[in-house]
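REVIEWER CHECKLIST
Item 1: Sequence provided? yes
Item 2: Single chain? yes
Item 3: Sequence as submitted:
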Amino acid sequence: MTVYFCSGFTDDSVLKEAREYFRQGAHSKSSAQSLNTLTANENKAVIKAYHGASYTLLAKHYVNPYSKLESLKRGLKIINEAVLADALEVEIRFIRFSIEEHIPSLVSFVSHLSDDKAIILNHLKKTHSNYEVIKNYMLVSSNLTAEEKKKLN
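Item 4: Structure as written out by the authors:
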């Protein structure tokens, strides 16, 4: 008897695709929408964080200020839920960090920049599958001191 398994995406392929859409989503509404669709029904915490990120990226592309704010709030809520589900996952913290540091100061929200930065600096390992992307992003972040940036090298 031969058993065939039909499956959609594996967690790894969804994660790889989500990372690419996330990277492009700030400049491409279609990438932000693709990220939203790709991650909509996933349960893994890091994929949920990317789903939340899709709403924050879509907010950048809306013209209506109310729509922008509502999409941003929805996305941050989902990302915060992902952090609660897996608090030490560096990639989830990176997603939230990279989004929060670009939120305009006139928007009222609870900042997690210092907490997320600490988790990233203390737990990012060279063996992480997204190590180079996270490290390179953090090295140019204005929210890290020169001393903190040295820890990444």
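Item 5: Key structural point noted by reviewer: The chain has one domain: 11-151.
Item 6: Recommendation: ____
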